[in-house]
Design goal:
With 275 residues, the protein is of the alpha+beta class. It has two domains: 140 residues, Fructose-1,6-Bisphosphatase, Chain A, domain 1 (2-Layer Sandwich); 115 residues, 3-Layer(aba) Sandwich (D-Maltodextrin-Binding Protein, domain 2), CATH 3.40.190.80. 36% of the residues lie in helices and 27% in strands. It is built from eight helices and 15 strands. The strands form three sheets. Strands 4-3-5-6-7-8-9-10 form an eight-stranded mixed sheet, with helices on both faces. Strand 9 and strand 10 form a beta hairpin. The longest helix has 24 residues. The protein is globular, with a radius of gyration of 18 Å. The chain starts with 7 loop residues before the first helix and ends with a helix.
Length: 275
C-alpha cells in the first residue's frame, strides 16, 4: 500500500460521502428535468442546466468548508487555488446531454489530484445505484466489491468506448472508428466519458478513447482504471495544462498497447483537426 499523509483517508471518505449526496441531488433534478432551463455553452451539443451549476456549487462549498487549504476545479466555475498540494477535480454531471434527454448514462465524477496525479476517484451513477471508488494503492471497488481486470479481454472479444466532441472533425472520429473496426473491434458511445472510464475499470469495456477531453471528465476514471489493474495514457495535469484539453486513452493491459497504436495512427491535434 502506498504511504499517505494523515489527511488522505479523510479526503477519500469525504469524496465518497459527497458523491452519494451529490448523486441524490442530481437525481432529484433528473426526475424533474422537464422543469429545467437548458442552455448551450460553446456549441449546440454542449449543454448545461441549473442542475450542473447547483451540484457543483454544493460540492465546492462542502469540500472547501471541510478542507479549505485544498484547490478545487469544477467544469462550471473553474479553479480556486489552495495551498495543500491537493486538487479536487469535479464534473457535477458528466453526460448532461443524456441527463436532459431522460437517459440514465450520466454520473457525478469526483477526483483528487496530488502533484498532478489522480490519487482518489469516485464516480456515482444515480440511475443505476452504482458507486465506483478507488484510492492510490487501495484498489478499486464497485458498490464495495473489488474490481480486478481480466487479462484475457482484448479489443477483438470485448467492446471499446469511443467518444468525440466538436473540438475534432468528423473525419478524425471516422478514422478512429474505421481503424478499430479493421482491427476486429467494436465500439459504443453512451454520452459520458467518465462513466465509460468507470466501465473500463469494471471490465464492461476493454478500453476507452477520446481525442480531446478535459480533466474533470477523466481524472476519477483514470484512478479507477489504474487501481483495477489497467493503464492510462499520461494526461498533463499541472499548471495551465490542467485547464486544457488532451487526448484520453485507458484500457485493460491486454488491450492498451493496441489502443495506443490506434491513437498514434489516427490522432491529430484538435487545432489541426478543426482548422
Amino acid at each position: 500500500m502506498t504511504k499517505h499523509d494523515i489527511g488522505f483517508d479523510q479526503r477519500f471518505e469525504l469524496a465518497k460521502s459527497l458523491a452519494a449526496e451529490a448523486g441524490a441531488l442530481a437525481l432529484d433534478y433528473f426526475n424533474k428535468r422537464d422543469t429545467l432551463v437548458v442552455e448551450t455553452k460553446r456549441d449546440l451539443q454542449d449543454v448545461v442546466s441549473i442542475a450542473d451549476r447547483n451540484v457543483e456549487t454544493f460540492l465546492r462549498e462542502r469540500v472547501l468548508a471541510a478542507i479549505p487549504e485544498d484547490s478545487f476545479l469544477g467544469e462550471e466555475f473553474g479553479l480556486q487555488d489552495g495551498t495543500s498540494g491537493y486538487t479536487w477535480v469535479v464534473d457535477p454531471i458528466d453526460g448532461t446531454a443524456p441527463f436532459v434527454n431522460g437517459l440514465p448514462t450520466w454520473c457525478v465524477s469526483i477526483a483528487v489530484l496530488r502533484g498532478g496525479v489522480p490519487v482518489i476517484g469516485v464516480i456515482q451513477v444515480p440511475c443505476m445505484n452504482e458507486t465506483y471508488a478507488a484510492a492510490d494503492g487501495m484498489g478499486a471497488t464497485l458498490n464495495g466489491k473489488s474490481l480486478k481486470l481480466d487479462p484475457s479481454r482484448t479489443i477483438q472479444n470485448s467492446m471499446t468506448g469511443i467518444s468525440s466532441n466538436t473540438m475534432v472533425t468528423p473525419e478524425l472520429v471516422g478514422s478512429i472508428i474505421t481503424d478499430l473496426l479493421a482491427r476486429g473491434g467494436s465500439f459504443i458511445r453512451n454520452g459520458s466519458g467518465a462513466l465509460m472510464l468507470a466501465y473500463v475499470a469494471a471490465g464492461r469495456l476493454v478500453g476507452y478513447y477520446e481525442p480531446y477531453m478535459r480533466a474533470w471528465d477523466c481524472m476519477a476514471g483514470f484512478c479507477l482504471v489504474k487501481e483495477a489493474g489497467g493503464r492510462f495514457m499520461p494526461f498533463p495535469a499541472e499548471g495551465e495544462a490542467l485547464l486544457s484539453g488532451h487526448p484520453v486513452l485507458a484500457g485493460n493491459v491486454s488491450a492498451y498497447d493496441e489502443l495506443i497504436v490506434l491513437h498514434n495512427t489516427c490522432y491529430v491535434t484538435p487545432a489541426t483537426a478543426v482548422a
